[in-house]
Amino acid sequence: MGPQPNIATAAFLIADPARAAMLMSLLDGRARPAGELAFAAGVTAQTASSHLGKLLAGGLLLVETQGRHRYYRLAGSHVAVALENLASIGPVVTVRRKPLSREAQRLQFARCCYDHLAGSIGVAITHSLQERGFLIAAADRQFDVTPAGIEWFGCMGLDVAKLRPNRRGLARQCLDWTEREHHLAGPLGVQLMSLLCSNGWLRRSESSRAIQVTPKGWTGLKEQLGLDAGSFTLVA
After folding, report:
1. Residue 142: CB atoms within 10 Å
2. CATH class of 7-75
3. Where does the HTH arsR-type domain lie (predicted)?
């Protein structure tokens, strides 16, 4: 047998509740200092430093130094994909749970999945793109972009022909851990969220992964994809 991937090491690192909390707080793709990550995990600075050292050594995090400060981020989108996929594993039956906090409800509605849009709005946009024949589900958890889709994205200001597929493809099906359905990821998903933010349709939170749809965004989503704010449960 050839060399085997060391799944156990990554699984061990992610399994610790404090380390898992740190990793999940970095799923918006931003870099954060150790103090913020310690607060997110509910541990002391000393304990956080130990955890961060292990995550760095295990290849799950990268660190940037600016002056006296060190900022930590996920090692790449592959780590984010693994975390989101792990979060989606669980019973599909309805069980009694405590009501979600306001922040949890905001994340369920719309959030960053590292570099693309996730949550119920991300899934709804993806469904609408499929219903209109702009995307077609393909093998290997990919989406094919149809000629009509290329035209629609172009009218929105996104030139699909200029995008370069990464090793996971151009338009990937990413399993949404709160919705248990797929949303759009890959370079196309990344650029779509970037476009919607730059157009003022979406607004990113400064302090969390949550994303807000602006009034301008609801107007555009209604006109372009038939998505109405009244169809969603919104949290102020």
Report:
1. 17
2. mainly alpha
3. 1-94
